[in-house]
Amino acid sequence: MSKTLVQLAPTAKPLEQDHSQVSAGADRSKLLSVIIPALNEAGIVDRLIQDLLVGASDDTEIIVCDSNSDDDTALIVSQLAEEHADIIRLVKAQQRGVSLARNLAAAQSRGRYLAFLDADARITMTDLKAGIQEMERRSLVAAAFKFRSSTDYVTDQLLALIFNLCIGLVQYLAPTAPGSAGYLVTWRAHSRSDGFNESMHFGEDVEYLRRVSSTGRFRILRASHILWDMRRFHSEGRLRVIWKMLYGTVAQMNDAVIEKVPFTYKVGHFQSKSHRAVTQINPTPKVLAQAYQISAKRPRLIPAEMASGIHFLKSPLGSVDLLQLMRERGAQLSPYCLDDKRRCVLFVETAANHDLLSADPFFYEAQRDAAERLYAVPYGSLKILAEHLIPEQDITRIFLQSTGRCGSTLVSQLLGAVPTVMAISEPDIYSQAMLIAQAAGGQRDREFADVLQSCSRLLSYYISVNHPQSRRHFIKLRSWAIFAAHLLPRDDAFTQHMFLYREPLPTINSFLNAYFSDSQYQIWRRYKWDAWLLKVLGQIPWTRNSLGATVPLFNHPTYSRYGRRSAAHYFALQWLSHMQAAQKLKEFDPDYFSMILKFEDIKQSPYEFLVKLSEQWADPPHIQEDEVARILSQNSQVGSRMQSKGEQLLSTEAKLQLQPVLNQFSFDL
């Protein structure tokens, strides 16, 4: 690397405008103003804005200052501002300069606190508000967030950890944190500092923090994190970026104003103005997703293990436009699971001509087995994907809720005998959304309702591309998804909900069959290992809450003692919990379920069931009787890791022991 000092050319002359005077007269009626400078950030700044809308309210605003972009940044932001006129505003700079853009936007702000974010950051308004609360508790005038890598590549996570340690230590010597950390500053401290130094190209953020912090305390926030986009590290090389950041940190310990640096430093805001591209009237949106190559898959630890990104060993491939990719290879891409830590949905890509819908009884298992690449799509970008890929009115979706182990897989396969119906069994995004939303105590219900709405449409897109003749998509959910039924779409004419249950004792026996053989179960019961295990798990807060999330009665003060007696008692409480949830849904909205089905009735008259179901549709399809006979002749879960062994594990004595708890409930479905 050359040791020649590079003179940092000054920016163009700032606008003839006294920013402090403009902002001094501004109304400070809002709690928070988020300031985002942007240059050629189409597909990136809109991702941040969508994140910031989570938790946005009347006392918050988002101000984007476009620095004369060559792409559609300004137009995209203006369209978002039209949709959210009370929250989003666009400011246009006549000259380029990141400090100039920040000052111009701050001059138009109305918040008592200012948050300065880079366009490629990721954080929600909820987290920013939490940061303000922490600032008030600690009497801070300025603060920066800790980092979290936008990828789960080990090297990137290690870098984020090291930077967090470094800025955590240096904060006590002098306010130091790169601009990508995101700053929260009180308006009073900002106005006293006269804003950002518009003559600086390098380290202007740290120099600004030094002046702001002269009016009070600066600290790194303890709780919240900002998602750190690693694109610069990947494009320039990690060592080069680390060297530049270390140089700036050390140099600014001596003098906050840096005029020369021993390396080439290119930032788009300071490049000379090139020929401006013609702005499209209707810009083509981009949905940037982090791509990963899967190199290996981790072994499964338990049967029916929920889908997760940790099941894959992977390496990052950079960012791609997933909207364009799905238009080209939609038959190979489907939503797999949530990565809530990074507020993303992971999509899997499989080999060409590999139809996941016929590969395994359970969709999440087929996805995991066939996945070759992963794509992390931000929650806020899902709606763009859905709206540009599939019109909502084209498809009718039918969600099947159930008690579990009640023949729901068989019902899904029976519907495959109807030519216009395509069934998909247990996509795990619904199961995960329920658990995360429940843990949040309802505070994120609106967010996950939007996520599931978009994911449902994107699942339909995958089905439609592979099976163009299908007009009705039957989505069978894991049983505990019934506790998140309020997150599913239900108020439109193109969504239906059904509930399936089975008599309790056969259900309990089927659950036991999924986990034990007859000999294994007899050993476990002889030594009461299942009871001891349930008691231990019931004492550990994390496992107790996890079990209670899918079986609420497990932690109920009246019934918890039953759930710890044996595995059979635990599954009895599971059946009761799901039946109770269905009963409450029916009582709240008698029309919520278009049909309530009992497995024993379907098993006895499967053809009549399909006829009854098809009569609800405007264009009743022809039912393939030979296909119905073929499906009934085989085990519906053959090939699955949850395949029942068909053994009778519940003894007569065990059945009698279950009756006291089962008899305490009655259901009218």
If you had to describe this structure to a student in words, what would you say it looks like?
- The chain is α/β, with parallel strands linked by helices and 669 residues long.
- The protein has a domain at 30-264: Spore Coat Polysaccharide Biosynthesis Protein SpsA, Chain A, CATH 3.90.550.
- 41% of the residues lie in helices and 18% in strands.
- The chain has 26 helices and 19 strands.
- Strands 4-3-2-5-7-6-8 form a 7-stranded mixed sheet, with helices on both faces. Strands 11-10-14-13-12 form a 5-stranded antiparallel sheet. The chain has a 5-stranded parallel sheet with strand order 16-17-15-18-19, sandwiched between helices.
- Helix 11 crosses helix 13, helix 15 runs antiparallel to helix 16 and helix 17 crosses helix 22 (567-588).
- The longest helix has 22 residues, at 445-466.
- The radius of gyration is 29 Å and the shape is elongated.
- The termini are far apart.
Into which percent range does the helicity of residues fall? 40-55%
Our measurement of the CA-to-CA distance between the termini, rounded to an integer number of angstroms, reads 75 Å
Overall pLDDT, averaged? 83
Unreliable segments of 5+ consecutive residues: 1-25, 268-279
Largest sheet: 7 strands, mixed
The CATH homologous superfamily of the domain at 30-264 corresponds to Spore Coat Polysaccharide Biosynthesis Protein SpsA, Chain A
Radius of gyration: 29 Å
Structural class call reads alpha/beta
**Gross morphology:** elongated
Q: Which fold name fills CATH's third level, the topology of the domain at 30-264?
A: Spore Coat Polysaccharide Biosynthesis Protein SpsA, Chain A
Determine and state the CATH class of the domain at 30-264. Alpha Beta
Q: Can you count the beta strands?
A: 19
Q: Main sheet: which strands, in order across?
A: 4-3-2-5-7-6-8
Number of helices: 26
**Strand percentage:** 15-25%
CATH architecture of the domain at 30-264: Alpha-Beta Complex
